[in-house]
Amino acid sequence: MALTLKLNGQTHQVEAEPGTPLLWVIRDKLKLTGTKFGCGVAACGACTVHMDGEPVRSCQTYVEDAEGTEITTIEGLNSKAAQAVQAAWVELDVVQCGYCQSGQIMSAVGLLSENPKPTVEEIDDYMNGNACRCATYQRIRAAIQHASNTMEA
């Protein structure tokens, strides 16, 4: 089926079978590989993208459900929250292996876009479901707090 997707501010025409996960269209058809496949059941967060500004798991979002929405991948982040999060990730050396980090960053930007001054508990609740095999959770939390403080300044 022919679909029109708006991804990172650009319109794309794609062919995909109904029920195809958005993740595979992003990676295989549009060749944007920053969004990762982790578990395929929306449990790890590696495939997180924003759809109309809200973080969603692209492995469990059908491509036809994304038509008519604004999709943002890690490659298209450019908001104030995104810049603060990305800078904090570098400054605090969050990344270890890096596999989960695009999903972590997408979720962190979603959080700070909704709640620019989250508490530690709010960070933990919002980021729950984003798995990191290297267990950099404390660095992720610290980077979100740092980004929040940077955005305020």
From TrEMBL:
<dbReference type="Pfam" id="PF01799">
    <property type="entry name" value="Fer2_2"/>
</dbReference>
<keyword id="KW-0411">Iron-sulfur</keyword>
<dbReference type="InterPro" id="IPR012675">
    <property type="entry name" value="Beta-grasp_dom_sf"/>
</dbReference>
<feature type="domain" description="2Fe-2S ferredoxin-type">
    <location>
        <begin position="1"/>
        <end position="77"/>
    </location>
</feature>
<dbReference type="InterPro" id="IPR051452">
    <property type="entry name" value="Diverse_Oxidoreductases"/>
</dbReference>
<dbReference type="Pfam" id="PF00111">
    <property type="entry name" value="Fer2"/>
</dbReference>
<keyword id="KW-0001">2Fe-2S</keyword>
<keyword id="KW-0560">Oxidoreductase</keyword>
<keyword id="KW-0408">Iron</keyword>
<dbReference type="InterPro" id="IPR036010">
    <property type="entry name" value="2Fe-2S_ferredoxin-like_sf"/>
</dbReference>
<dbReference type="InterPro" id="IPR006058">
    <property type="entry name" value="2Fe2S_fd_BS"/>
</dbReference>
<dbReference type="InterPro" id="IPR036884">
    <property type="entry name" value="2Fe-2S-bd_dom_sf"/>
</dbReference>
<dbReference type="InterPro" id="IPR002888">
    <property type="entry name" value="2Fe-2S-bd"/>
</dbReference>
<keyword id="KW-0479">Metal-binding</keyword>
<dbReference type="InterPro" id="IPR001041">
    <property type="entry name" value="2Fe-2S_ferredoxin-type"/>
</dbReference>
<protein>
    <submittedName>
        <fullName>(2Fe-2S)-binding protein</fullName>
    </submittedName>
</protein>
